[in-house]
Description:
28% of the residues lie in helices and 26% in strands. The protein has 169 residues and is of the alpha+beta class. The strands form two sheets. It has a five-stranded antiparallel beta sheet. The structure holds ligand K1U and zinc ion (ZN).
Amino acid sequence: MALLNILCYPDPRLHTVAKPVKEIKTETLTLIENMIETMYESNGIGLAATQVDVHERIIVMDVSDERDSPMVLINPEIIWAHPDRVKGEEGCLSVPNTYDSVERAIEVKVKALDKSGTLQEIHATDLLAVCIQHEMDHLLGKVFVDYLSPLKRNRIKTKMHKLQREVNH
Ligand code: K1U
Ligand code: ZN
């Protein structure tokens, strides 16, 4: 297994729209294992392929306290969203040390393939519902900071540029 490099906002590659997976190949399964390892190593609850610069519709998540229940969603589609929405604090592995409030549907139903290619349907609530919507946004090239005001977004961009300059020196 291997740790993957996570793209950092405002890297333009984070705004790429991912393509559906046509066939689950050995390379797809290797990518998934590496994404799960990278998510755990980074203490994240989710990771989208977009964040590791692979522009295919693949998400991994684990919202369990034990961190022993990885979920894999290939070609996910939201088939139902609860009309009620709730604001909650979000973070992102591509935007380190930055948290802000985003409004999301409180429940969603999603259909997706698992890693063996079987169609699964997930009824997600609470943190899992928020995480699925956050990760599916990544596949559409959207980062949670895109929901914030231009002023906040520009402050975050400046902070990230500064952070990257420090890392490179
Ligand atoms: O996509 C990502 O960058 C992963 C991201 C997922 C996420 C966190 C919070 C709300 C929605 C989606 C993270 O895992 S950020 C870091 C984190 O572990 C975390 C942050 C807030 C709550 C729970 C976990
Ligand atoms: Zn994210």
